[in-house]
Amino acid sequence: MAVFRYGEVETSWLASRDPRLGDAIERIGPIEREVDPDLFSSVMHHIIGQQISTKAQATIWRRMCERLGEVTPETVLAAGEGELQALGMTFRKAGYLMELARRIETGAFDLAAVARMPDEEAIRALDELPGIGRWTAEMILLFCLERPNVLSWDDLAIQRGMRMLYHHRRITPELFAKYRRRYSPYGSTASLYLWAIAGGAIPGMRDWAPKRKTSKSTAGEKTT
Q1: Tens digits of per-residue pLDDT, 119-128?
Q2: Cβ neighbour number for residue 103 with a 10 Å cutoff
């Protein structure tokens, strides 16, 4: 299993810039997050995983690998939209996968060129593909291309981790930009630890977001 590569250089840098994050890194220890070095299968995997649980994503991906043998543009096109949908995904997602495979097979989209692009250019290129938004593109950069400085504003768990670590009630764009600058050029390693914090890796840390209050006038509704 290939995992995201980082080490003492990245963690020492982050600890020197942010002692609070450095303490969290020391308490949590090394983190192993699996990566997929194949760009095409990584894009497919991330499209499948949108808006479903990790378990459901793993099940569909296992079925797809078993059915196709190797996930390539050729095998995806040979399977067809109906057969892809029968693996457990929606028709819309199956259509996205078919369209991506078709563009690559015909040369309309140069996926290999994305790996050579700077981060923002690669994100824009991926964002133009059907079924891929900025967050998905950023996750592909991190968990396939292993870019070292990915910190996603659109990731709610990242924001939760920041609230928990720094005791913020809300992460504003300005506050997020401050932390992005502080973590740079190792935002990806910071992301790994913020995800771990958001997932409860450090006992006793809580989310400082304001609690939702129950409206007195409308039973059962929640209001902020």
Answers
A1: 999 999 999 9
A2: 16
